[in-house]
Amino acid sequence: MKNHFVVKLNALALLVYVLLFTVPSSAQEKKPVASPKDSVSAKIGKANVQITYGSPAVKGRAIWGGLESYGKVWRAGANDATTFRTDKDVKVEGKSLPAGTYALFVIPEENAEWTVIFNKVAKQWGAYKYDQSRDALRVKVKPRKVTDLQERLKYVITKAGFELRWEHIQLPVAVK
Question: What pTM was estimated for this model as a whole?
Answer without folding.
Answer: 0.81
